Amino acid sequence: MTATWQTILAQAITCPQVLCDTLSLDPTFAADLNAACKGFPLRVPQPFVSRMEVGNPTDPLLLQVLPQTIETKAVHHFSADPLQESHHNPTPGLLHKYHGRVLFTLSGACAVNCRYCFRRHFPYEENSVSKTHWQNALAYIQSNSSITEVILSGGDPLIHKDKKLQQLVEDLAALPQLTTLRIHTRLPIVIPDRITDDLTSLLCNTRLHCVCVMHVNHANEIDEAVIAACQKLKQANVTLLNQAVLLKGVNNTLDDQINLSKRLFSAGLLPYYLHLLDPVSGSAHFDTDIKEAKALHAGLLANLPGYLVPRMVKENPYEQSKTPFP
Ligand SMILES: *Cc1c(COP(=O)(O)O)cnc(C)c1O
Ligand code: SF4
Q1: % of the chain residues with pLDDT over 70
Q2: Run of H or E residues at 133
Q3: 41-95, pLDDT tens digit by residue?
Q4: Which residues of 64-86 are buried (b: 16+ CB within 10 A; e: fewer)?
């Protein structure tokens, strides 16, 4: 019998030593990584590990998840809450910063812990949508008729079981003002089996238009299983987009970005955003130089059709939308 997505999730690697053994990396390499794990542990599911190159300590997938001692170094301008999100929090779990759409954090938990994540310092509750928070969020949406789209985010909303998601989607579909349901997720990338038949049928059957924004940073993250998962979503009429983060050592060359866009397209995803790194403490070693980012964007425009060029954006705490860059 094949393992369910929940089993794969539960068996994610959380020990640096085990990860290094799996990839045949020098054990001394793992020895000093534990300090960096404090507060934001290593977590990476097996299907994602299986796409890493054995014996390569600078593999672009490995670097995204491997805790490193360099994270513990304090760096000027890098802070715990760079986006000042506590200012736009009308009710717990809900962020209303931009016109027409709200972002609801269903859970702080993720299937994978990405080292550059700006949520790494958030005091999230584990894996729960409190009924009260959800009811309050629905009430807030109803009292703001300008809201037409709800974005389920996190953490990763697909960490919840299909039954629970079904209930949440039904609650949203019952609000006549809403037209669109958006899901921000990395789960189908790290565990493609997450795209179950129950999930696709629930997305196919709601009256809401469904958009799924994936998170892929490197072409190597997309294998045949990911392509099959995306195909299932496409058949359920879900619009598929991708957001990536520009990360030094992972995807900051022109070749990396061109290959990523082409690979995304072959999986049926269009590049949406390429985020400049949020200055969150512990992630400074991924930061790219502004000039380099500009040149990269110009290179993409010169090499790809417009629909394969992601919008490069920065997130500024007090703006009405993400800020286009350059
Ligand atoms: C990014 C973000 C959104 C979505 O913005 P789009 O430009 O529509 O993708 C919505 N709310 C918050 C708080 C966000 O950070
Ligand atoms: S999946 Fe997204 S929210 Fe979760 S750790 Fe990675 S970047 Fe952060």
Answers
A1: 95
A2: helix 131-142
A3: 999 999 999 999 999 999 999 999 998 888 888 888 887 777 666 667 888 889 9
A4: bbbbbeebeeeeeebeebbbebe
- Contacts of 254 by beta carbon, 8 Å cutoff, 6+ apart: 296, 299, 300, 303
Token look-up 């939308």 returns 321
Peptide bond connecting 155 to the previous residue in cis, omega within 30 degrees of 0:
yes
Task: Characterise 175 by phi-psi region: left (phi > 0), alpha (psi -120 to 50), beta (else).
Answer: beta
Encoded amino acid at 77, one letter: H
Identify the nearest ligand to the CA of 147 by its number.
1
Question: For residue 123, what pLDDT is reported?
Answer: 56
Helix, strand or coil for residue 299? helix
CB-based burial label for 204 (10 Å; 0-12, 13-18, 19+): middle
How far apart, in whole angstroms, are the C-alpha atoms of residue 75 and residue 104?
30
Report the pLDDT averaged over residues 268-291.
Answer: 93
Residue from 275, 255, 274 nearest 263 by CA: 255
Collapsing DSSP states into helix, strand and coil, what is residue 107?
strand
List, for residues 119-129, the tens digit of each pLDDT value.
777 655 544 67
Alpha-carbon separation of residue 168 from 126, 197, 214 (angstroms): 18, 18, 20
Residue 207 to residue 174: CA distance in whole angstroms: 9
**Does the pTM exceed 0.70?**
yes
Task: Report residues whose beta carbon is within 6 angstroms of any ligand 1 atom.
Answer: 95, 97-98, 101, 103, 151, 321-322
* Ligand closest to CA 102: 1
Q: 110, 268, 123: which is closest to 184 by C-alpha?
A: 110
Q: In whole angstroms, what is the distance from residue 84 CA to residue 252 CA?
A: 27
Place of tokens 């509750």: 125
Centre of ligand 1 to C-alpha 319, Å, is 11
Residue 12 to residue 41: CA distance in whole angstroms: 12
Ligand 1, residues 89, 101, 213: which to mutate, most atoms within 8 A of Cβ? 101
